[in-house]
Structure formats: structure tokens, C-alpha cells
Amino acid sequence: MNYLEFEKPLAEIEGKAAELRAMARNTPEMDVDKEAEALDKKAEQLLGDLYKNLAPWRKCQVARHPDRPHCKDYIDALFTQYTPLAGDRNFADDHAIMGGLARLNDRPVMVIGQEKGSDTKSRIERNFGMARPEGYRKAIRLMDLAARFGLPVITLVDTPGAYPGKGAEERGQAEAIARSTEKCLAVGVPVISAIIGEGGSGGAVALATADKILMLEHSVYSVITPEGCASILWKDSDKMREAAEAMRLTAQDLLKLGVIDQIIAEPRGGAQRDRDAAIASVGKALESVLATFDGKSPADLIAARRRKFLDMGRKGLAA
After folding, report:
1. pTM exceeding 0.85
2. Directed axis angle between helix 56-63 and helix 226-233, to 10°?
3. Is the per-residue pLDDT at 4 higher than 70?
4. CA 49 from chain center: how many Å?
């Protein structure tokens, strides 16, 4: 278990319980059950207290947790007959964005998502989930393909933001993000987005301009990272806690503002504590929302989606 900074007291208690049980395995005559169970109860209580009212900055830390399930984990667990599709038919294949044809509960869909990677090798290959222009152009190609065959589009968003490197800028990063956002608005099939970790900047918006936006309880969604915001406003990235408070980037704040449509509850202690349960919750939410679009025409879908985003600013001002 990788523990976050604010989880250090929990790490000590769970570590002591593990030590006791290890000692008992090596010395069978020792009876440590009562002491270990007492520590387990104490750890469970502390875990609940820590996660009861997480501050925005702590939610950012949880959203970035290395053990949190990523896009590939959701695709492997929830989707059957997944057939990956690669390349933008123009420059290259961007491994930060994965997608393809699949079935969700035996319903054909197009699934597209940002993958951060799970170890050093895969993180480098996936560029830590930061897509280049060819990644967004691949997403556009897959959405066009989905529209051609009348398949709903499901996007899984988890990125600190689009890749800001020199090569990406030379190949039209901003244009590619804008085109992907435009395609989300214009495609004549249901588009459902789930923010499963970080929803960072335009890199996230390019896949999250959807009919319904779902968000895991401890995920975050914002125009910039708290560190970036603090660097711009206060010239001090160490003020990321104050920035996170001001940015209203939590699922709870965004639901009030009308930016997202639904919060998906996470297991106690975050999705990283019970990956299977978290993935199952997302799957149930996606299936439930997808069923609400049955029978709607492409014209109605597009009109409602555009209205949703035009109204969003008005709701935000009122809030």
C-alpha cells in the first residue's frame, strides 16, 4: 500500500497490525489476535475520519494516487470484446489515449480514455496520460467511426493535462484539442464521460464535453492544476492548497455548479483501497446513464448537448 502524506498516522497503525501478525506467523505460540483486531478497528475508524471531509488539496492527492485504477483497468474489467484501434491516420499513434470498439454489458460502444500507466516503463510509454495532438486526432477519428455505426461513445478521463512540449505545439496541440471538443459537441450519438482521476485543463475537456459527465467522489476537474494556478497567481507553487480551495475543483463543488451531472461514490479510503468495487460502481453508473438515451435521435442529442453547455455558464454565475 502506498500511503499519502496525510495518511501517515494510518500507515503506522496498519503497519503495527501487520508486524504483530508477522510475529505470530514466526512464533505460533504467540496470541496476538486481540491486539491486531483492536488495531484494525482503530485503523478503520481513522480511515473514516480522514476521508469524511477531505480538503480539496487532499482530494487532488487521492486523485493522483499511483494505486488508483486507471483507464486500462476499467476497460479490462468492464468491457468485453475490446478491439483497440490505433493511430490518427496522419502522423502517429499516441499511447496516452487508448480506445476502440467494445461491449458494455453486451451493448456495442466506442470507448476512449487517457491512460497514465502503472509502472515506470508504461508511464513513459503512455507519457503519464498527457496526450499529444495525434492522440486527440485519434479520438476524433474514433468518434466519427462511432457516429457512422450509431455507437454510443464512453470516455474515461484521467490526465494532468495535454502534453505541452515543443513538438506537440508545432503539430497544432491547441487546434487538436479544440477539434476534439467540437467533435464531442457535434457527434450524433450519446456521449458519456467518467472522470476517474484527474480532469486537467483542455486535455480533459477535449474528451469530457459530453451529454452526461460522471465523476468519482475523490476525483478532481479543473482548468489548471493547483500548482500551476499558484505559480501564476502568487508566483509560488507551494500555495497549491490555497489554490485548490479557491478553484472549486472537487466533485461536490462541480455538481453544485452544474459542471458535472453525477457523483459516483468510492469505497472508504478511495478507489485505491478497493479497486474492484470502484470499477464496478463506475460500470453500474455508465450502464444506468446509457439506458436513458435509448430512442433519442441524433438531432435531439446534439441540440440538448449544446444547450447543456450554453446553460452551464449561467448556472455557474448563479451559484
Report:
1. yes
2. 130
3. yes
4. 24
SS3 per-residue string spanning the chain: CCCCHHHHHHHHHHHHHHHHHHHHHHCCCCCCHHHHHHHHHHHHHHHHHHHHCCCHHHHHHHHCCCCCCCHHHHHHHHEEEEEECCCCCCCCCCCCEEEEEEEECCEEEEEEEECCCCCHHHHHHCHHHCCCHHHHHHHHHHHHHHHHHCCCEEEEEEECCCCCCHHHHHCCHHHHHHHHHHHHHHCCCCEEEEEEEEEEHHHHHHHHCCCEEEEECCCEEECCCHHHHHHHHCCCHHHHHHHHHHHCCEHHHHHHHCCCCEEECCCCCCCCCCHHHHHHHHHHHHHHHHHCCCCCCHHHHHHHHHHHHHHHHHHHHHC
Q: Which residue has the higher pLDDT, 277 or 1?
A: 277
> With b meaning 16 or more CB within 10 Å and e meaning fewer, what string describes 51-70?
beebebbbbbbbbbbeebbb
Cell numbers at residue 289, please?
Answer: 446513464
- Torsion, Cα of 301, 307, 312, 315 (10° steps): -120
The predicted-structure confidence for 251-285, as pLDDT tens digits, reads as follows 999 999 889 999 999 999 999 999 999 999 999 99
Contacts of 41 (CB under 8 A, 6+ apart): none
Q: What is the reported pLDDT for 53?
A: 86
**Distance between CA atoms of residues 284 and 287, nearest Å:** 5
What does the alpha-carbon distance between residue 303 and residue 318 come to, in Å, rounded to a whole number?
A: 23
Residue 247 near residue 226 (C-beta atoms within 8 A): yes
Structure confidence at residue 238 (pLDDT): 86
